[in-house]
Amino acid sequence: MRITRGLGAVWGYVRSAPGTYVWLAILFMTTVALHHMSPEFEQHFLRQRSTNIHELSRNPVRVLVASAMWIDGGHWLPYVLLYTVFHAPAERWLGTVRWLVVCALAHVLASLISELALLRAIRDGMAPHSAVNTLDIGVSYALAGVIAVLVYRIAVPWRYGYLLAVLLVFGLPLTEGPTFTDLGHFVSVLIGLACYPLTRGCAKAWNPKETLAALRS
User: At what angle do helices 96-123 and 140-149 cross, to 10 degrees?
Assistant: First the structure.
């Protein structure tokens, strides 16, 4: 009976964030596909779906969509945790459409801005020309944007602690030999924070103090 109730609760949670778990299902299938490829073919295959300078100059729309459907490295389980902790609550709070807007803005704009920064580095001689084919694929920019927009889900003063943690996690790499992906992640955070207008009219901010009080009573 308890097992049935537990499974029912899990299924209810999954149904409350359909976009999150459909995306996870797609990532599971593409990850399985990667595990059936040779390492050499896998790199060639992913590079064609990468938002690198070369592919963006040829097929920008295709690679911007395709790059969000694959995970470089082939480890799917960590994303189950990350999507459940960040994406699912954001989707339940914002609604699927507004959540998707945050994801799309963070993924697309951060990809373009980071690649433009890399292009400038190549032209200034700070990066090799071969960097136009650098592998840039995955879901981390969208995830960073969603992590940032969740700042507005938390009530003051707890919000400020969460915001500081987000800025430190994504900002510190910029002070230690930053890469274009470090820049992309930080840009994603700024985009997520700029999505405040999308949070208007959503459920009131979560107050950890109220939750703790309810658990004690």
Answer: 120
- Residue written as token pair 């797609």: 26
Please give the full DSSP string across 129-171, using - where no structure is assigned: GGGGG----SSHHHHHHHHHHGGGGBPTTHHHHHHHHHHHHHH
List the alpha helices (DSSP H) in 36-133: 39-47, 53-58, 60-66, 77-82, 88-94, 96-123
Name which CATH class applies to 2-216. mainly alpha
Domain ranges of the chain: 2-216
Residues with Cβ within 8 Å of residue 200, at least 6 apart in sequence: none
Q: Of 115, 110, 79, give the one whose Cα is nearest residue 192.
A: 110
pLDDT tens for each residue of the chain, 217 residues long: 667 777 777 888 899 999 999 999 999 999 999 988 988 898 889 989 999 999 999 999 999 999 999 997 778 999 999 999 999 999 999 999 999 999 999 999 999 999 999 999 999 999 999 999 988 888 999 999 999 999 999 999 999 999 999 999 999 999 988 899 999 999 999 999 999 999 998 888 888 887 777 777 6
3-class DSSP state of 127:
coil
